[in-house]
Design brief:
With 170 residues, the protein is α/β, with parallel strands linked by helices. The chain has 6 helices and 5 strands, in the order βαβαβαβααβα. The longest helix has 20 residues, at 48-67. The relative contact order is 0.23.
Protein backbone atom coordinates (compact mmCIF):
# COMPACT_ATOMS: atom_id res chain seq x y z
CA UNK A 1 0.00 0.00 0.00
CA UNK A 2 1.34 3.41 -0.98
CA UNK A 3 1.51 5.78 1.98
CA UNK A 4 0.88 9.51 1.99
CA UNK A 5 2.64 11.87 4.40
CA UNK A 6 1.22 15.35 4.89
CA UNK A 7 3.62 17.90 6.38
CA UNK A 8 1.95 21.16 7.42
CA UNK A 9 3.92 24.04 8.89
CA UNK A 10 3.16 27.60 9.84
CA UNK A 11 3.22 30.01 12.75
CA UNK A 12 1.17 29.38 15.87
CA UNK A 13 -2.47 30.26 15.32
CA UNK A 14 -2.60 29.86 11.55
CA UNK A 15 -4.80 26.75 11.70
CA UNK A 16 -2.49 23.77 11.28
CA UNK A 17 -4.02 21.60 13.99
CA UNK A 18 -7.57 22.42 12.92
CA UNK A 19 -6.82 21.54 9.30
CA UNK A 20 -5.13 18.30 10.34
CA UNK A 21 -8.10 17.30 12.49
CA UNK A 22 -10.42 17.92 9.53
CA UNK A 23 -8.16 15.91 7.23
CA UNK A 24 -7.96 13.11 9.78
CA UNK A 25 -11.74 12.80 9.59
CA UNK A 26 -11.70 12.65 5.79
CA UNK A 27 -8.71 10.46 4.97
CA UNK A 28 -8.89 6.67 5.31
CA UNK A 29 -6.61 4.83 7.74
CA UNK A 30 -5.17 8.07 9.06
CA UNK A 31 -2.98 8.97 12.02
CA UNK A 32 -2.12 12.50 13.18
CA UNK A 33 0.96 13.76 15.03
CA UNK A 34 1.35 17.35 16.20
CA UNK A 35 5.00 18.26 16.74
CA UNK A 36 4.06 20.11 19.92
CA UNK A 37 3.18 16.76 21.51
CA UNK A 38 6.83 15.72 21.12
CA UNK A 39 8.12 18.64 23.21
CA UNK A 40 5.52 19.57 25.83
CA UNK A 41 7.79 20.46 28.75
CA UNK A 42 7.67 22.76 31.78
CA UNK A 43 9.79 24.73 31.74
CA UNK A 44 10.05 24.88 27.97
CA UNK A 45 13.80 24.92 27.35
CA UNK A 46 15.23 25.60 23.91
CA UNK A 47 18.86 24.63 23.40
CA UNK A 48 20.82 22.37 21.06
CA UNK A 49 20.15 19.28 23.16
CA UNK A 50 16.37 19.79 23.35
CA UNK A 51 16.18 20.66 19.65
CA UNK A 52 17.99 17.41 18.77
CA UNK A 53 15.71 15.52 21.15
CA UNK A 54 12.46 16.80 19.64
CA UNK A 55 13.59 16.07 16.09
CA UNK A 56 14.58 12.56 17.14
CA UNK A 57 11.14 12.10 18.78
CA UNK A 58 9.40 13.31 15.62
CA UNK A 59 11.51 11.19 13.26
CA UNK A 60 10.94 8.13 15.44
CA UNK A 61 7.15 8.54 15.67
CA UNK A 62 6.67 9.45 12.01
CA UNK A 63 8.90 6.55 10.98
CA UNK A 64 6.83 4.14 13.06
CA UNK A 65 3.59 5.48 11.57
CA UNK A 66 4.99 5.19 8.05
CA UNK A 67 6.11 1.59 8.65
CA UNK A 68 2.83 0.52 10.29
CA UNK A 69 0.56 -1.28 7.85
CA UNK A 70 -2.57 -0.01 9.64
CA UNK A 71 -2.01 3.54 8.36
CA UNK A 72 -2.25 4.78 4.80
CA UNK A 73 -2.22 8.52 5.59
CA UNK A 74 0.08 10.22 8.10
CA UNK A 75 -0.52 13.84 9.11
CA UNK A 76 2.12 15.96 10.82
CA UNK A 77 2.03 19.63 11.76
CA UNK A 78 4.43 21.89 13.59
CA UNK A 79 5.77 25.43 13.27
CA UNK A 80 8.50 24.28 10.81
CA UNK A 81 10.00 27.71 10.18
CA UNK A 82 13.43 26.36 9.11
CA UNK A 83 14.16 24.69 5.78
CA UNK A 84 16.61 22.30 7.45
CA UNK A 85 13.78 20.79 9.51
CA UNK A 86 11.57 20.40 6.41
CA UNK A 87 14.49 18.70 4.63
CA UNK A 88 15.06 16.33 7.54
CA UNK A 89 11.41 15.33 7.61
CA UNK A 90 11.30 14.96 3.83
CA UNK A 91 14.16 12.49 4.06
CA UNK A 92 11.73 10.06 5.72
CA UNK A 93 10.15 9.39 2.34
CA UNK A 94 13.42 7.83 1.19
CA UNK A 95 12.95 5.04 3.73
CA UNK A 96 9.47 4.07 2.56
CA UNK A 97 7.17 4.13 -0.45
CA UNK A 98 5.64 7.48 0.48
CA UNK A 99 4.03 10.34 -1.39
CA UNK A 100 4.47 13.65 0.42
CA UNK A 101 2.37 16.79 0.41
CA UNK A 102 3.97 19.84 2.03
CA UNK A 103 2.38 23.17 2.79
CA UNK A 104 3.29 26.14 4.91
CA UNK A 105 -0.01 27.60 6.10
CA UNK A 106 0.12 31.38 6.34
CA UNK A 107 -2.25 34.28 6.83
CA UNK A 108 -2.06 38.04 7.06
CA UNK A 109 -0.68 39.56 10.28
CA UNK A 110 -4.13 41.01 11.07
CA UNK A 111 -5.85 37.66 10.63
CA UNK A 112 -3.17 36.00 12.77
CA UNK A 113 -3.66 38.59 15.52
CA UNK A 114 -7.45 38.07 15.46
CA UNK A 115 -7.16 34.28 15.63
CA UNK A 116 -4.62 34.34 18.44
CA UNK A 117 -6.56 36.93 20.44
CA UNK A 118 -9.64 34.70 20.30
CA UNK A 119 -7.56 31.77 21.59
CA UNK A 120 -6.00 33.94 24.31
CA UNK A 121 -9.41 35.25 25.37
CA UNK A 122 -10.71 31.67 25.50
CA UNK A 123 -7.77 30.65 27.72
CA UNK A 124 -6.33 28.31 25.07
CA UNK A 125 -3.03 30.20 24.68
CA UNK A 126 -0.79 32.44 26.71
CA UNK A 127 -0.59 36.13 25.69
CA UNK A 128 3.11 35.90 24.72
CA UNK A 129 2.16 33.72 21.74
CA UNK A 130 1.02 36.79 19.82
CA UNK A 131 4.46 38.42 19.52
CA UNK A 132 6.25 35.09 18.97
CA UNK A 133 3.91 34.08 16.17
CA UNK A 134 4.06 37.44 14.41
CA UNK A 135 7.88 37.37 14.60
CA UNK A 136 7.95 33.98 12.86
CA UNK A 137 5.56 34.91 10.05
CA UNK A 138 8.25 36.43 7.74
CA UNK A 139 10.48 33.35 8.11
CA UNK A 140 8.18 31.31 5.89
CA UNK A 141 8.95 33.48 2.83
CA UNK A 142 12.38 31.86 2.56
CA UNK A 143 11.20 28.25 2.60
CA UNK A 144 11.25 25.99 -0.44
CA UNK A 145 7.80 24.53 0.20
CA UNK A 146 4.41 25.47 -1.23
CA UNK A 147 2.43 27.98 0.79
CA UNK A 148 -1.29 28.18 1.42
CA UNK A 149 -2.73 31.55 2.42
CA UNK A 150 -5.57 30.83 4.85
CA UNK A 151 -6.45 34.51 5.50
CA UNK A 152 -9.87 34.31 3.87
CA UNK A 153 -10.39 30.54 4.05
CA UNK A 154 -12.56 28.64 6.47
CA UNK A 155 -10.86 25.62 8.05
CA UNK A 156 -12.88 23.37 5.71
CA UNK A 157 -11.70 25.34 2.66
CA UNK A 158 -8.10 25.12 3.87
CA UNK A 159 -8.43 21.34 4.32
CA UNK A 160 -9.90 21.07 0.81
CA UNK A 161 -6.98 23.09 -0.56
CA UNK A 162 -4.48 20.73 1.09
CA UNK A 163 -6.31 17.74 -0.40
CA UNK A 164 -6.21 19.44 -3.79
CA UNK A 165 -2.45 19.93 -3.38
CA UNK A 166 -2.15 16.21 -2.58
CA UNK A 167 -3.77 15.25 -5.87
CA UNK A 168 -0.99 17.15 -7.64
CA UNK A 169 1.78 15.30 -5.77
CA UNK A 170 3.92 13.38 -8.29
Amino acid sequence: MKKHLYLLGGPMGVGKTTVCRLLQGRLPNCVFLDGDWCWDARPFTVNEETKRMVLDNIRHLLGNFLRCTAYENVLFCWVLQEQTVWDELLSLREAADVDVTCAALLCSPDALKDRLRRDIDAGLRQPDVLARSLERLPLYRDLRVPTLDTTTLTPEQAANAVLHMATKTP
